[in-house]
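Help: why these numbers?

___
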Amino acid sequence: MSWATTYRISIHLLCLLLLAFSIQVSNETAKTVRTRQIEPLLLNLDRLEVSFLNLRTDLSDVSELEHSIREKGLIQPIVVRRSGDKFQVICGHRRLQACRNLGWKSIPALLVEASDKSAFEMAITENVQRSSLDPLEEAEAFRRYISSYGWGGVSELARRIGKSEEYVSHRVLLLDLPPSVREKISRRQLSASEATELLWLKDRDQQEKLSEIIVREGLSFRDVRAAVKKIKAGCSIEDSALVSLQAGASFTNAEACLVQLKKAIVSCRSSLFVLDSAIDNLQVMGELGEELAHKVLEQRISLHQLIDALIVEKVRLERRIRKTCY
């Protein structure tokens, strides 16, 4: 398949996914997201502005993205909406920064009509599905949606972005951790799952001390969970961490693999929903739509088979871990 063909198909699929998203995010016509055109506009960079709804506090290093765009071009346009005589960026802030760094004067962009709520939901959904935000950026975005803007509760947001209520609520609770612990999360010294376990300790000093031991000793998630249980039972933090580390050494690698398997299954299941929406919309969009719907359906079947295979492997690994524990 040529680069040009790949580009055209990616544009069509992106538009269709936006249409699918518009159906998902709202049943009220005034609040739906509507694409203004199938082909992207070419917008001057000086006409683009960062939306007040931007989720990112730091765009991080975009050098790899710059290299990809320099070699292959910008495969996926950014998504924007009108703001007076300018355009607000909804999705694609890192792509925009990479293009600025490369000296581009203009950039392909899909123009949509979207309310503040719909635009924010689009931005959250894209970034969560790509896992491109750090856990605290996700947590802050969720908090803004639920508390600052009052657009819905935990269950509503979870449904919108294809995540569990537990996932959303645990992310928001990360903001209650001490600053030193949150800093370790931002620096990727502490994973979100490990940090979530610390929430079971109500004493902030205990949360800070255990987080330091996690980083210093390289405790696994299972080690952390076991240590927290021992601390709640009255053991000292140091003794609890040491015993958990010794007990978990034999199956740390297996559990790490299990975590990755579970993440893969969740991601695949979320993708099924997006593909289903795209197929439904493609089927009523003429000959090209029907052709693309058939191709997407084939990939959906393959994805479903992959999910089944991953679940089988997950069950096997869980049994192996249980045998090791006991």
Summary: The beta strands are 34-35, 41-44, 48-50, 78-83, 86-91, 106-113. The mean pLDDT is 81.
